[in-house]
Structure formats: C-alpha cells, structure tokens
Amino acid sequence: MHWSLSLLVIFGALLGLMAIGVPIAFSFTTVNIIAVYYLWNGTAGLNQLMLSVYESVTSFALLPVPLFVLMGEVMFRSGIAGKLMDVLDSWIGRVPGRLSLMAVAGGTVFATLTGSAMAGAAMLSSLLVPEMQKRGYSREMSLGPILGAGGLAIMIPPSALAVLLAAIANFSVGDFLLAIIVPGLMMAVSFALYIIVRCWLNPSLAPSYDREPVPTGLRLKNTLLYGFPLFLIIFLVVGLMFLGIATATESAAAGALGCFVLAWAYGGLSWSMVKESFHATLKVSVMMLMIITGSTAFSQVLAFSGASTGLVEMASQLPWSPLMVVVAMMGVLLVMGCFMEPLSIMMLTIPIFFPIIQTLGFSPIWFGAIMLLNMEMATISPPFGLVLFVVKGMAPPGTTLTHVYKAAIPFFLCDLVVMGILIFYPGFITWLPSLMGR
After folding, report:
1. Which pLDDT tens digit goes with each residue over 258-282?
2. What is the domain count for the chain?
3. How far is CA 269 from CA 120, 123, 255, 272, in A?
4. What's the predicted TM-score (pTM) here?
5. Peptide bond into 203 cis (omega under 30)
6. Which range marks the domain in which residue 73 is found?
7. Residues 57/62/66/67 CA torsion (nearest 10 deg)
8. CA-based radius of gyration for the chain
9. How many CB atoms neighbour CB 287 within 10 A?
10. How many CA atoms does the CB half-sphere of 43 hold within 13 Å?
11. Containing H/E element for 193?
C-alpha cells in the first residue's frame, strides 16, 4: 500500500472515531491496535505495541506533569489567588482599562502557579467579572482580557502541555520551559498595550472610577505577606532550572512542596483540600498519560507504514523556502484549532511535523515554542475553544457565545502578531536557554 493511502486510512479512522465522540485516548488505542495487527505481523505486532506503551509512560521526562498539575490544584483550591489579586489591585494606578490590565497581570502571575488555561480563566472570571460589570465595563474589555490572559498558563512555566510536547518530540524539557518564558511575556505585553490604546481611544469601553487610596506602607506590607512568597514559588520552578541547580523534575517537586507550605501558612491547608487536589491531579494525569501512550504508538505506526518518510521527502521537495513550510504548518494548526482541543492537535501533528522540521534544519525548541503558542490560540479560537466555554459559563446573564467570540478576536490577533515575530526572530525563544547555568 502506498504511504499516502496508508496515511489517509489511518487519519480517516482516527478522525472518524473522534467525530462520533470516542475519547481521544481510546481513539488512538483502537487505531493503533488495528494498524499494528495488520502492519506488524499479527500477534507479534501487538506484543511490540505493549512494549511501546510501557516505554512511553516510564519516561523520566514525564514526571513534572503530575507535579505541575498538583501545583495548580493546590493554588486554585487554597484561596491564595484572591489575596494576590488584592496586592496587584493596590499597585495599579489610574490607567485606561485598569481592571482589564489587572486581568492581564493576574493571568500572568497565575500562569506561573497553575499551569492550566481553564483554571486561570475560571479564577480570573470569578474574581474580576462581577467588579467589571459593576463598573460599567463593556463585554469586550471584561471578557476579552480574561480570555487572553487565561491562556498564558500554556506559555509560561509550569506548563504541563509544554512538558508533554517536549517529551513526545524528544528534546530537553528544562530548556523548553525556559524557552517559552519570553514568548509568554511578549503575549502579556501585547495584551496590555492593546488594552491601554483601545481604552484611550474609546474610554466608554472601560469607564474610569475613583478608588480609595491605599497607603504605601500597607501596600508594601501586603506585598511582602502575599506577593513575595509567591515569587519564591516561581523561583523554585524556574530559577532553579535557570541556575542549573535542579532538573525540570526536581524543580517541579520543589514547587509542589512550596505550594503546600504556602497553603498551610495562609490557613488554606485542610484534609479535604488535599484530598480534592490529589484526586483532580490523578484524573488529569491518567488522562494525559493514556493519550501519550496512544500518540507514541501512533508515531511508530506512521513510521512503519512509510507515511512519515514520505511526508518528509515531500516537504523537502516543495518549491518553497523552509520558512514558508513552517508558516504553512502554522496555518494548518490554526485551522485545526478552530475545531479541536490542543492536546488532540499535538498528538496528531507532532509525529508528522517534527521529522520535517529536523530535516529542514530548524531548532525543535524554536518550532515547539511557536507550536505551543498556536495551541494557546486554539483555546480561544471560535467556535470550539475550551476557554471560550469556561468564560461563557461564568459571564454575566445575557452573555451569548457570539459576545464571547467577539471579545476573543482582538486578543487572538495579538497572539498572531507575536507568533509572526517569533517565526522571523528566533532569538526571542533561544536566548534564555542559551544563558542557562552560565
């Protein structure tokens, strides 16, 4: 069978199972079992599949995933987020779109603590949307910043999705977690600039209001009590890796322990909270590991069928520059992001795209960072972005999905601008990993 026909049959079966509602992990498993049985000589192929499954989930590089998920669950359930927002509120002055800027600042800090776009968006919505509604903010300036800032959790460590991408694509997890920091901050800056300019041009979108001044002494005291300890957690996760003191797994363990200590210090640690956090972490981690087993075997099936080699040869023979091939890949990912969730897209495309990228001579970390940004955009891409539905569920009465879509578009475009910069100026991605441990 020609490789193109094999690819069509395998992808068609996989997408067909997903379309009828079969969970992602089981869709991969079903296709893999049937494919290896026919391609790898029956029972012998099934034995090889079992070995592949075992090797894919016993990788040391995957250990940060449950630890990062646990960090987010503890921070989300211990009530620390509200205290942090009060600190940020005391330092932001009378600028256009003040509460919208708080959403961006809060989303950036929460991203270093939760690692989940949906959890970040849910926290920001519950903390800020009622106040925005009370102050007369438009839907564009109340929902939009939360949609954009919530997704920063994918692009700023600790990001479980980043660990999965690096582990599956087989490059350094620690280097990759450092590489996505600057792109994540660039996204936050682009959101803030858009909000300030937009509200300056049209103040009715975010009416200004008088607020009771907070004495400088009290602000400093609250910052030391509630802000500084959180930055210690950030240092445990990112700083230890940057200094070369700890691996990504060791940093994740230190960060998780720090979150429990912080929850205890603020009075948010209880047996019920611990139980709920571990239970949620177990559910998410098992789901991710099941998907990884399916994706790893899927990439081997593609390689054995000749589809991977055929695609690499075809891409290398295209009459395009290598950079245009990358742009075309990003276009494919953007279209997929409108209809699929990020994890599914990654599992489908990593086995195909990364061999092509290596053949073209590009850095896998550079391409991985751009791909991860694309996955962040998928969470707010109409019509099926997951964060869109989270924000819709917590929006004021009368808010429709159309309102949420319109609010997301400007921040989607900000992400697109940042993506263009990263594609043509790779140094923004590779600079920080190059400094690690010096």
Report:
1. 889 988 888 888 899 899 889 888 8
2. 1
3. 20, 18, 16, 8
4. 0.79
5. no
6. 3-435
7. 150
8. 22
9. 14
10. 0
11. helix 181-201
